[in-house]
C-alpha cells in the first residue's frame, strides 16, 4: 500500500477549497451572500457611525463660536455649505450615479440597463453621503446603504467571476443586506427585494436563499457594532379596538392620495433642479453650496425641519406637539424633503417619508380622538400606522412598509392596523393611476441618459463636419 506523502496530505484541502470556490454551485452563491451580508452590515454600521460623528463635529464647531456676537445660525451657514458643496462635487466629478438614493440604479443594474462601477460608487456614496447628511439636509441613510450593499454584491461577483445570473442574485443580496442593516430590519430587507424589485429579481430557490443569507448576516454584524435596540424608541401599543379599524382604512385612503401627489412633486423637483444646473458641474456644486447653507441654518434655528426625520418620530408619536405645530412641520418638511432629495444629493428618501407619514398619522389620530374619544384613546397608534402608510403609497410596497415599521419600532401588536392602513393606501394610489416612485425615477434616469447620449452624438457629428469643411 502506498503511503501518502506530507505534500499530498497538505494539498488535498487546498485542492478541495480551490475546486469549491471555482465551480458554479448554489452552495458557492450562499457562501458569497454571507460574505456580502457581513461587508454590507459593516459598511452600513460605519456609515451610521460616520453620520453621527460628522454631525456632532459640525455642531461642536458651530458651538465653539457661542461666546462671540455672531448668531450661531450664521456660523452654521458656511460650514454646512462647504460640506454639502463638497458632497455635490464628489458626486458629479467621480460618480454621478451615486446621486440620489441609488435604489433606482440598483434596479436598473439588475435589468442590465445601468452600469455598476463599484470602485467609484462605494467611496463616493460613503463620503458624499456623510457630508450631505452631516450638513443637516433632509435625507435618509437607507438609500446609500442599499446602493453600497448592491455594489458590494457586484464587487464580490467580479472577484469570484460568477456568471450573469448569479451576479444579479448577489446584487440583490447586497441590496437586501444594506437595507436590513440600515434599519435593523432583516425581514423588511428581504421583502423589499422580493416585493419592490419583483420585476427585476430573478426568482429561484438559490437566489432567494442568497437574499435571506445576506440580510441575516448584515443584521447580525450591524447589531454587533451598534447594538440590538430598535432603531426608533416609541411606546409599545396593545391591539386597538376592532371597531376602530375603519379609521385606519380611512387613513390609508388619505395616504393613497397624498402619496400620489408626493411622487409627482418629487419628480417635479428633480426636473426643476435639472433645469437650473443643466448637468453643468459648477452649477450643480453651486446648488449644493446654497442648500448646505440653508439647511445649516435650519439645523440650528428649526432642527425639526432638517435631518432625516427619524429622530423626530419618537417626539411626534409621544404627543409632544399640538395639532397646529404638527401641520406646520408636516408642510415644511414636505418642502425640505423635496428640496433635499430633488437636488440629486447622495441620500435617500425612505426616512423622510417615514417621518412625513408619522406626522400626518398623528394629525389624523388627534382629529379622530376629538371626534371619537371613547373609540380612539391613544392617537399615537395612528402615528405608527402612518409611518407605513405613506411609504406604501409612494413606493407601492405595502408588505415591506408593514414589516419595516414593526421591526423599527418593535410594535408587533400593531400589525393589523398597519395592514389595513398600507393596503388602503396602496389600493387608492393604484386606483388613481399612481406608480412606484423608484420605477418612475429609473425611467426618468434612462430618458435623461438617452438624451445626453444623443446630444453627445450630435456634438461629435457637428465637430466632425466642421473639421471636414476646413
What does this structure look like?
By secondary structure, the protein is mostly helical. Helices cover 75% and strands 0% of the residues. The chain contains 18 helices and no strands. α4 packs across α18 and α7 packs across α8 (186-196). The radius of gyration is 24 Å and the shape is globular. The relative contact order is 0.13.
Please state the average pLDDT score: 91
Strand content: under 5%
Helix proportion: over 70%
The tally of helices reads 18
Biggest pleated sheet? none
Please provide the count of β strands. Answer: 0
Question: Structural class of the secondary elements?
Answer: mainly alpha
Report the uncertain regions: 1-10
General form: globular
| Series of H and E elements | HHHHHHHHHHHHHHHHHH
How far apart, in Å, are the first and last alpha carbons?
86 Å
Secondary structure: elements and pairs:
Elements: H1 6-22, H2 26-63, H3 72-94, H4 103-110, H5 118-134, H6 142-160, H7 164-183, H8 186-196, H9 205-226, H10 245-277, H11 281-301, H12 313-317, H13 323-341, H14 350-371, H15 380-395, H16 398-409, H17 415-431, H18 437-469
Helix pairs in contact: 2-3, 2-5, 2-6, 2-7, 2-9, 3-5, 3-11, 4-7, 4-18, 5-6, 6-7, 7-8, 7-9, 8-9, 8-16, 10-13, 10-15, 10-17, 13-14, 14-15, 15-16, 15-17, 16-17
